[in-house]
Every structure is written in C-alpha cells, then in structure tokens.
Write a structure and sequence with these properties.
mainly alpha; elongated; 53 residues
Length: 53
C-alpha cells in the first residue's frame, strides 16, 4: 500500500468515526464510548498530519 492510499484509508476511518458521533444520540453511546471514538480520531488525525509532512 502506498502512502496516498494509506492516507485515504485513514481519512475514511475518520469519516466513519465522525458519523458514529453524529449518530451517538440515536445509538445511545455512553460517555466512555464517545471518548474512545474521540481518542481514536485524534490518533488518526495525528497520523495523517505526519504522513502529509
């Protein structure tokens, strides 16, 4: 997998996590689950930033 494909895949996962947060009221996520999603998003965003340098 090349660098651009990896960045694309990471961005797709970030988008899925954002959607999960939008749906969190409907799904009934706990605060802990929401925090886990936010932590994962921060981690992925940091990876994307590093890869794009």
């Amino acid at each position: 997998m090349n660098k651009q494909q990896l960045i694309f895949n990471l961005r797709m996962e970030i988008a899925a996590l954002r959607q999960a947060l939008r749906d969190s009221d409907d799904v009934g996520l706990t605060e802990e689950q929401i925090n886990t999603i936010l932590d994962r998003m921060n981690y992925l965003l940091a990876l994307v930033r590093k890869l794009e340098e």
